[in-house]
């Protein structure tokens, strides 16, 4: 079944004007790399550095900082290019909503946001392009996870009976992560041990991560954000044990290399009762032979058929392009809060039981949703298998995305200049 997971851009949407977006380059002073046919300019690296330099100790462009920013830009280019190559699009309305969300979280209107960007030296047009790119990358990653991770019933049963299953489903931990890849295992081990010796405080951890880590979030000091404990790799969970905030954990060896973790904080959310909605939907997407306007028209036609009394299940089987639910007549089952993207959840919550919505758009395409029922659910009792499936997906997704990116790099032409 397709899960329309909550659409967030994490730090991008909250801190975008200050942390992740590129300021307009002052001059084009050389090519740092070429990815397929697209150049990454020295000025692109400088622009990204200028946005994040306040978080870099000393505020200087060291060779390691330069390398990490360049690698980040290369990765983003490869991921966005792949999304475009498979026909994925980001609508203007989706980008507008994302930018409006940024402004609202900063208690600003659009003009106020533009003024803040201007003070940061960030061109609004380039800012908007970067938001669009981030949405595209976020969506293609969700598609890759959905296609490459399949959880069996036996895996869920085994997980539920394990020590690290739902006994820890409410425990969350805020971590920083440092990774040294093990292309040369002995050298990597020696390096991680030397780094660990230098770390006494969180500030030390941040400094060493920015200078040395091969991890995805190195430029942010390795900040992984809040993670449910049972959604971390089991290797990490065992190593964390009963360690308290302010503790260094590791080195930990995995197939990816050697890891260090810094525990920033822990918490245990207490929510156990929630309202769930039983729903089904029809999804149609634009593609190479049907543009967005034609897709909207198709959704409107399906809606008119429903108004005239057509069976929702049969129309879903005929038209819906959600591979996970089409054969089940669009059935999504009992949906918990915050498991759907906000646009979908908002329409679903405002549709009466027994009724269906008008066509509406999300980043996945055009939907019509039918609400079949609502209930109050004790999630600690009745959705264990669904929560277990989500936890198992979360445990595997980092490896899956890392392998996918490695495949993109292997197939791409990447020329890094001196």
Automatic annotation (TrEMBL):
Residues 1-23 form the signal peptide. It is an enzyme of class 5 (isomerase). It comes from the Bacteria. It is found in: Periplasm. Residues 170-265, 274-373 form the PpiC domain. GO terms for molecular function: peptide binding; peptidyl-prolyl cis-trans isomerase activity; unfolded protein binding. Keywords: Chaperone, Isomerase, Periplasm, Repeat, Rotamase, Signal. Coiled coil: none annotated. The PPIase activity resides only in the second parvulin domain. The N-terminal region and the C-terminal tail are necessary and sufficient for the chaperone activity of SurA. The PPIase activity is dispensable for SurA to function as a chaperone. The N-terminal region and the C-terminal tail are also required for porin recognition. Chaperone involved in the correct folding and assembly of outer membrane proteins. Recognizes specific patterns of aromatic residues and the orientation of their side chains, which are found more frequently in integral outer membrane proteins. May act in both early periplasmic and late outer membrane-associated steps of protein maturation. This is Chaperone SurA. It comes from Marinomonas pollencensis.
């Amino acid at each position: 079944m397709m899960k329309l997971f909550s659409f967030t851009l994490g730090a991008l949407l909250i801190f975008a004007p200050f942390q992740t977006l590129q300021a307009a380059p002052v001059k084009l002073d050389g090519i740092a790399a070429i990815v397929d046919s697209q150049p990454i300019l020295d000025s692109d690296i400088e622009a990204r550095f200028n946005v994040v330099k306040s978080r870099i100790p000393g505020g200087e462009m060291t060779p390691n900082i330069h390398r990490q920013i360049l690698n980040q830009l290369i990765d983003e280019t490869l991921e966005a290019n792949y999304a475009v190559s498979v026909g994925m699009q980001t609508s203007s309305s989706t980008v507008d909503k994302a930018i409006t969300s940024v402004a609202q979280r900063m208690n600003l209107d659009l003009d106020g946001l533009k003024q803040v960007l201007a003070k940061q030296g960030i061109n609004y047009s380039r800012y908007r392009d970067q938001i669009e790119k981030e949405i595209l990358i976020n969506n293609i990653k969700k598609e890759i996870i959905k296609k490459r991770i399949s959880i069996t019933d036996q895996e869920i049963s085994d997980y539920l009976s394990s020590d690290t299953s739902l006994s820890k489903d409410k425990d969350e931990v805020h971590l920083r992560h440092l990774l040294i890849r093990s292309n040369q295992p002995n050298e990597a081990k020696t390096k991680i041990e030397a780094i660990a010796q230098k770390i006494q405080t969180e500030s030390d951890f941040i400094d060493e991560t920015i200078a040395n880590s091969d991890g995805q979030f190195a430029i942010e000091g390795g900040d992984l954000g809040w993670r449910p404990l049972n959604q971390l790799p089991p290797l990490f969970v065992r190593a964390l044990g009963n360690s308290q905030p302010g503790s260094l954990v590791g080195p930990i060896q995995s197939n990816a290399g050697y890891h260090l973790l810094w525990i920033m904080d822990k918490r245990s959310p207490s929510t156990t009762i929630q309202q769930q909605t039983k729903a089904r939907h029809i999804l149609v997407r634009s593609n190479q032979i049907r543009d967005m306007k034609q897709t909207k028209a198709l959704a409107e036609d399906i809606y008119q058929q429903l108004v005239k009394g057509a069976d929702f299940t049969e129309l879903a089987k005929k038209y819906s392009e959600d591979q996970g639910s089409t054969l089940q007549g669009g059935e999504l089952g009992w949906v918990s809060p915050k498991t759907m993207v906000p646009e979908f959840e908002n329409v679903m919550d405002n549709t009466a039981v027994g009724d269906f919505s008008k066509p509406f758009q999300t980043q996945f395409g055009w939907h019509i949703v039918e609400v079949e029922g609502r209930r109050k659910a004790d999630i600690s009792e009745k959705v264990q298998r669904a929560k277990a499936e989500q936890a198992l997906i979360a445990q595997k997704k980092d490896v899956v995305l890392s392998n996918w990116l490695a495949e993109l790099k292997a197939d791409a032409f990447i020329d890094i200049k001196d």
